[in-house]
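Database export, one record per block. Field names are fixed; values are copied verbatim from the stored entry.
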Amino acid sequence: MKQSDMKGHLAAFVTIFIWGTTFISTKVLLKSLSPIEILFIRFLIGYATLWLVYPHQLKPAEKKQELCFAAAGLCGVTLYYLMENMALTYTLASNVGVIISIAPFFTAIFSFFLRKGDKPGKRFFLGFVMAMAGICLISGSSGAALSLNPLGDVLAIGAAIIWAVYSLLTRKIGDFGYHVVQATRRTFFYGLIFMIPVLFLMDFHVEAAQLMQLSNLGNLLFLGLGASALCFVTWNYAVRALGSVKTSVYIYMVPVITAVTSALILGEKITAASAVGILLTLGGLFLSQKWGKETAKDAAEAAVQPEGEQQALE
């Protein structure tokens, strides 16, 4: 395995590991803040952090690039998280967890039709079926059986599709050759801009006393510095190194990380069903990683970029 591929896999794993633990921080924050308040504050912290880490302004070479950044911000920051949060208000968390995990399937399909990537083969579909079976077992073992909730489930499917679009936009942005921190920060900027109208619609109201509570401050910093600033940079780096499809399949690991951290931190038990689900999910991830030639193609494209542009830091 090439060194760039190893760094890409490590970046993807670190990203998913942190994203898989964010439910704990979000659960604490929801006691005093609304979902939109948490979302806006965490990305505002992330945006400010990326300026401190790499204080160099990005000037897109052409209008099409600017539109691509705007689309990535709209999809990956504003729409995805809003649709996911709205889905959670209408349907079960177990439903959302399973449905969101189909994002790699949409990524592969879109990559084939829009980027002329490889046609998904038997290994990819087998890995997808294995991973989804495992995720269903993990979700089902939590005691919340999957049930049909049309509006919430449709919103969750929409979020999965939006994330797939964001993954492809990220790969396109990687082709521009900008520093990954600059590119991520530009995406955050547009995500925050598109979020502003929603703040008025959802009665955004945060008091200083809420932010100064130690538990709230600590969890907001974790979400802003780790889950937003760091993770979006490492995710975007992984997409550049591995390609959008092979990076996206790491999403299968989110329920696995969540189940394991729930057991370690919250004391929840890992049942026999969830243990089998974890093994199936990891097996599906392995099979999916072995599929396709998009990685080699994308790695070759990335290799022609200046070395400094590929260096970076849920």
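Remark 1: Residues 3-310 form one domain.
Remark 2: The chain is about 75% helix and 0% strand.
End of record.
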